[in-house]
Amino acid sequence: MWKWLHPYAKAQTAYRLCNTLLPYFAVVAVASIIIGWVWGLGFAPADYQQKDSYRIIFIHVPSAILSMGAYSSMAIAAFIALVWQLRNAELAVIAIAPVGAAMTLIALITGAAWGKPMWGAWWVWDARLTSELILLFLYLGVISLYNAFEDKGSAGRASCILALVGAINLPIIHFSVEWWNTLHQGATITKFDGGAIDASMFWPLMVNILAFAAFVGTVVLMRLKNEILLREKHRPWVKGLITNQTQLENQNVGDKNAV
Amino acid sequence: MQRQYSYRQLFISVYKKDVLLAFRQRSEIINPLLFFLIVISLFPLGIGPEPQLLARMAPGIIWVAALLSTMLGLDKIFRDDYQDGSLEQLLVSPYPTSLIVIAKVTAHWSITGLPLVLLSPMFGLLLNLDSNAMQAAIITLLIGTPLLSLIGAIGAGLTVGLQKGGILLSLLVLPLYIPVLIFATSAIDTSAMSLDYTGQLAILGAMLAIALVMAPFAVSSALKVSVS
Amino acid sequence: MQFNSFSDFISMGGYGFYVWLSFGSCALILLGIFLDSKLSHQRTLNAVSKQLEREARIKKAKQESK
């Protein structure tokens, strides 16, 4: 049943798959970021309560969703890498981690910039902001553990173990923080999402979520390609790829000289 | 290969070796305790000596200090054995790695966690805890410190092969300590209001049970990565 | 269009600073991680090709010395 997946365990096939998928993801990302931002900033109606400040939702919510989505996909990749010993899954973990960290950082910054006009403070120890902050720590842990190893083979496996441990801990951390928050803060904070969201705001939000997802996909594919190349640098196909690349560049230089 | 020792004998010998070594160089036991004491005495100097304020902050102070002082000895769990090569021998031996890990973690707990639990009444007095809260503090430390050692061992196993593992270790491990911190301090807080805090203790106990089952496997695979 | 003029659009009903701060930093971070991945691809190619050249040179020198 899963046999069709087997060829992708080979680095070269996976690299080629990245190359085929990349343009689609990139086009969707660019188009939906432009549509989503213009729609969200210029055309969506203002909220009756929060006026125009609510427009931050169009980047805050997508980045928060993607920060957690990226962590779960990283954990799944880590699980696959450890159980089936697939090198490509290990490389995917390394490719996802910085992108997920960037998403978390965006969610934190936009959360703070939204909190200032709404709550009157840049930082409030709100359950969701606090969980995002801890999520950022977990991402940074995976990244710095990978960078600390000299031997990238053990580095990959060590980061996979850490990503899995973090994934098991993450729900516990999330619920404990939520529980701690209700215990200490009570109902001083007004919740944003009370009730259903109107269609005129819902659709631009969906477009933005799609945009962020496609963006994450694009950048992860790019990073995965780099990791595959670095790890496989002694293989003949990489050598072939590079000689092709240099030939192309030389040709380009030659064309320019001719002009 | 034939197994010369039963699992119980193996556990006892690994445990004994680590504890004995720690007792030979006393600083390993005494330094974390001194660190704990100093951190706790710094807080009244920093925030003021009002008894009410101190009693209010005490659960947080005790637990943050406990987290930091267990971090001190954490790097040591596997490092010495890694450097003299005996860790590698233990890993290639025909005995299950998780058993060795549990023995070493238990030894680490008896060296750093247990003295903390035994001396915590004294620290509670410094921070003006009443007897209810003191009791809760002792019980949460008793359940919580083994949990800290277990989770910390994962980080120690991952960083044992690195030259400068110390700071990285705290970056990896401290975020994972947050649930323990939250539930333990909340148990002490609740007890200070003379309410029932068995709920928090039950959650701490549940986390200890989960960690006891899962952490040894994570640590042994981490060690295999670090040693190979 | 929700706004009557461009200055209305910039001021965002008084919340301009916060809205543009978050959109600006978001754009900056997205651009940053994109450029990092893009440039690191070039860096990777260069590094690998340099290493290959070096290996070829070493091989050649060994053959010549024989």
UniProtKB/TrEMBL annotation, chain A:
Family: Belongs to the CcmC/CycZ/HelC family.
Reported function: Required for the export of heme to the periplasm for the biogenesis of c-type cytochromes.
Entries under Pfam families matching the protein: Cytochrom_C_asm
One GO CC term, this protein: plasma membrane
Domain of life: Bacteria
Stretches that traverse the bilayer: 21-44, 56-84, 91-113, 133-149, 161-181, 201-224
MF terms (GO), sorted A to Z: heme binding; heme transmembrane transporter activity
PANTHER family: CYTOCHROME B_B6 PROTEIN-RELATED, HEME EXPORTER PROTEIN C
Cell compartments where the protein resides: Cell inner membrane; Membrane
Keyword Ribonucleoprotein belongs to the record: no
Predominant localisation class: membrane
Family annotation (InterPro entries): Cyt_c_assembly, Cyt_c_biogenesis_CcmC, Cyt_c_biogenesis_CcsA/CcmC
Protein name: Heme exporter protein C
Domain Cytochrome c assembly protein, residue spans: 8-184
GO biological process: one example: cytochrome complex assembly
Membrane topology: Multi-pass membrane protein
Record key words, sorted: Cell inner membrane, Cell membrane, Cytochrome c-type biogenesis, Membrane, Transmembrane, Transmembrane helix, Transport
Originating species: Pseudoalteromonas denitrificans DSM 6059
TrEMBL record, chain B:
Coiled coil (UniProt feature): none
Database matches in InterPro entries: Cyt_c_biogenesis_CcmB (IPR003544), Cyt_c_CcmB_bac (IPR026031)
One Gene Ontology biological process: cytochrome complex assembly
Record field: transmembrane: 29-47, 53-74, 95-118, 138-160, 167-188, 200-223
Membrane protein topology class: Multi-pass membrane protein
One MF term in the entry's GO annotations: heme transmembrane transporter activity
Pfam families listed in its UniProt record: CcmB
Family to which the UniProt record says this protein belongs: Belongs to the CcmB/CycW/HelB family.
PANTHER family (alphabetical): CYTOCHROME C BIOGENESIS B-RELATED, HEME EXPORTER PROTEIN B
Main function: Required for the export of heme to the periplasm for the biogenesis of c-type cytochromes.
Record-given protein name: Heme exporter protein B
Originating species: Pseudoalteromonas denitrificans DSM 6059
TrEMBL record, chain C:
Segments crossing the lipid bilayer: 15-35
Keyword annotations from UniProtKB, A to Z: Cell inner membrane, Cell membrane, Cytochrome c-type biogenesis, Membrane, Transmembrane, Transmembrane helix, Transport
Protein name, UniProt field: Heme exporter protein D
Principal cellular location given in the protein's record: membrane
Protein source organism: Pseudoalteromonas denitrificans DSM 6059
GO BP annotation list: cytochrome c biosynthetic process; cytochrome complex assembly; heme transport
Physiological role: Required for the export of heme to the periplasm for the biogenesis of c-type cytochromes.
Organism domain of life: Bacteria
Family: Belongs to the CcmD/CycX/HelD family.
